[in-house]
Amino acid sequence: MFITSEFTTARNLFPYTDIHKWLSYGHDGKHPGCDEYYFGRREFSFTLENDVYLRYKSFKSVSSLEHAIKSCFPYKIDIGAVYSVDPDKRHAYSQTGTNVFTPVERELVFDIDITDYDDVRYCCSGADVCSKCWPLMTVAIKVIHTSLKEDFGFKHILWVFSGRRGVHCWVCDPKARRMTNEQRSAVAEYFRVYKGNENNARKVALMGYSLHPFLARSYVDFLKGFFEGELQANQSIFSTKDKYDKILEMISDEDIQSELREKWEKSANRSSLSEEAISLVRWEQLKNTLQSKKHKAPTLRMCVEEIVFTFTYPRIDLEVSKQMNHLLKAPFCVHPKTGRVCVPIDPNNCDEFDPLAVPTLSQLIEEINSGGSKMDVDDDDDDDDTDTSLLGKSIKFFRSSFLEPLLKSCKEEIESSYKTKIGKSKDSFSW
Amino acid sequence: MEVIRSQKRTASNDVVSNPKIPLYLTAPPLEVRLEEFELFAIDRLRVLKGVSDGLARGKNPKEMDDVVDALWKEHMRHSDASEMLNKDIISHFVIRLVYCRSDELKKWFLSMETALFRHRFRLRNFEAQRAIVGEFGLPYKAVTGAELESLKERLGQVVRSLGQISPSVVNDICCVSVCFFSFLSFAVEAVYYKVPFEEVPDLVAGRRVLIQKGHAFVAGSQLVSLVVTQFRSHISKALILTNRKWMTTIREREKDRLTPIVEALSTTYVGPDYSQSNDYADISLKDIDQVSKSSFPLCMRHLFEKLREDHHLKHGGRMQLGLFLKGVGLKLDDALAFWRAEFSKKVGSERFDKEYAYGIRHNYGKEGKRTDYTPYACQKIISSAPGVGDHHGCPYRHFSEDNLRAALGRMGLSSRGMEDVMDKVRNKHYQLACTLTFEAVYGTSCDVGINHPNQYFEESQKILKSKTPAAPV
């Protein structure tokens, strides 16, 4: 699948300095309050060509990271947690006593994969993705991003294309990095609405008399509009019997199901409308019927919302978020099956993101060969407006929207906690 | 805490019926008789074991409040309030010493003491609860004035989203002055605390609080979450320190006096964890299909059937079934052969060796940090969250009614037996449903109640072997 020579280019284009700056979180050794060993305690893992998987790799500096990657030839690089001691020296420490090998910091991460939506997308399935179903990822980003900022107060959030069919999210605030597994699990559960597998029919059950404010805001600001607009247009979820049967099964009242089923079977042949128009008409009919009958049972109270949530609400992979020691693919890797670079996505402009237009490794190689860009993106020019290459735009975005504000706030934190420490020790010397 | 011979203690004027809940922050300077050292601990262990049983049987919070109340009265009560408080404190510290000595024991102790604390707290009135919150020294303030006004609408939404408020919930809302409001309408409570969301993970997970800019707005009636998190965190740290002290000084110093008592106490109460299979349950690969039909509980049967059907299981299923099989007596080599035979039909044996064999060896403690993992108990399985493409979890909880009936039908349940089981399921008594299934399938009663899949398997094997001793069952 992957040709070694092509991947050599990938390894040369990988932004080592930027990644190192990010993961050092300001501990660059230039301030007395810096922890110069911080970067060295971060776990990386490499997946090599024969599916050989190397864990617990750690590096003291950006040059040793770069050297290792260029000599081991990994085709996938994962980032793990920052541990209490260097991962590659972990065996030197016993498991009891004060020097236990344990994670101490890790970004709060989320992984959303479009294959988890296979039961609600009709255009593709499995590893495929297209312009009709990718909007599910877009709306997922909007819902989760808004909540991370507004509800949890996080500020330093990086969204990355996973290279083929999903997105990853890295929350890098200090508070987020220090969260315990229990707290991560709590946030993941807060985001969880869909509880489905093939064994249950009603996969979204919204109990109570109203939606929680987070769900209400998501519904009003993003989900409703997406369901009634783009989703209907792309997927026509009521247009055929197979499709609408699935939705009718979510209504827990048999009478209402039959009523609608009969109505739609009758109108099936008579209509000259497009698939999309039929879908919209039926949706309106369903809403009106439920509205008039919702007092019949508590499970009908929010049936309309349940249907919308089933089709549109984000489905995150809970296990990825819950544990500090879970590894996640590094941004700017190249996906071995698609050749696409895992570029950052701007959450404020995610409607513009097109997964099928993301630069591939072949495109990058061609660009280099035709003299269109520098071979080495790995330099420190922050204001390099002349770099309009395919990858240059992504790197620039990474630096200006994410890395710079993050480093600024990290340095402020290092400085202020240093001052506090100095202040304290000064007091202890007072006579 | 000094252990000595007989001493008289002075009485105090505390009310016996509404005793203080100590926080066990530091070992108090009390004197304990040697006999009391052991007796107090045994009484407390009875309480903790009762809590453990109640949780395993899937009792809801209100039922657990009653269980704890009854257990405490039976084993820890004393006519003199200060005697009762002393016994409470002393017994906690003794058990802490006993249970700090391994990860398994620590985990059990932490869970049970936290649950005990949670329900004792819930049984107190609002004033007493506020006093306990105060004792933790938490810096969180009540939200007032303009801030509270601006949040009121959304706080109301949170209250309404939590569903119908029924009369039984009135007991949970311990603030007497808003009791009537809450009973009759979905009113916002009078008191809310502004707390960092990290302090109340269970409220966040259940979307039971409004969260804004990193702060959770915790109602007076939800204080229990806040203090339980604090309590748990404190006990967890204390266990580590206690273990260190035990290993470095106490064990040696007390080897002729306390150490034998401490070591004996720990073996008294850890329930079987099925990590070492016994003679009943050594199965071989050739028997496994038959045994799955005759002795597996529904959860494992389903996973097994799906594995045979799809030649694949996702991670949750591999863990749940894999560890169960280990507990049932499947040796590592047989396990590897078994999973390889299935998975290679779908992904090929090479991919199996690369991607899945490690995980199986890991379960048997042959990789990574070499922990010999124990098979999941019902409580853990019931609280798991099977998602898209998953087949693990507890069928009594996670299956739709139709699918569950079909599965029970395949197990051979009559329609009457099935109704009894479905009735338990509707009332969320999943383990009782499984127990009834067991009783229907084997035509015998199971008084103890199922709380572990391996227990179901062992009990089933006992019955079958007693009927036909020679043939493989």
TrEMBL record, chain A:
Going by the UniProt record, its keywords in alphabetical order are: DNA replication, DNA-directed RNA polymerase, Metal-binding, Nucleotidyltransferase, Primosome, Transcription, Transferase, Zinc
Checking Gene3D superfamilies in the record gives:
DNA primase, PRIM domain (3.90.920.10)
- One cellular-component annotation, GO: alpha DNA polymerase:primase complex
Instruction: Give the main EC class.
Output: transferase
Q: Which GO terms describe its molecular function?
A: DNA-directed RNA polymerase activity; metal ion binding
Specify whether Manganese is a keyword of the entry.
Answer: no
Family listed: Belongs to the eukaryotic-type primase small subunit family.
Protein name per its UniProtKB record:
DNA primase
Organism source for this protein? Brassica campestris (Field mustard)
Phylogenetic placement of the source organism: Eukaryota, Viridiplantae, Streptophyta, Embryophyta, Tracheophyta
TrEMBL record, chain B:
Keyword match Cell inner membrane:
no
Superkingdom of this protein's organism: Eukaryota
Q: Give GO terms: molecular function aspect only.
A: 4 iron, 4 sulfur cluster binding; DNA binding; metal ion binding
**Required cofactor(s):** [4Fe-4S] cluster
Q: Enumerate the InterPro entries for this protein.
A: DNA_primase_C, DNA_primase_lsu_euk, DNA_primase_lsu_euk/arc
- Boundaries of every DNA primase large subunit C-terminal domain copy: 289-457
Q: Where does [4Fe-4S] cluster bind?
A: 299, 378, 394, 434
According to the record, how does the cofactor bind?
Binds 1 [4Fe-4S] cluster.
Q: GO:BP terms for this protein?
A: DNA replication, synthesis of primer
Which keywords appear in this protein's UniProt record, sorted alphabetically?
A: 4Fe-4S, DNA replication, DNA-binding, Iron, Iron-sulfur, Metal-binding, Primosome
Q: Which Pfam families match?
A: DNA_primase_lrg (PF04104), DNA_primase_lrg_N (PF26466)
Presence of keyword DNA-binding: yes
> What is known about what this protein does?
DNA primase is the polymerase that synthesizes small RNA primers for the Okazaki fragments made during discontinuous DNA replication.
Q: Which family does it belong to?
A: Belongs to the eukaryotic-type primase large subunit family.
Q: What is this protein called?
A: DNA primase large subunit
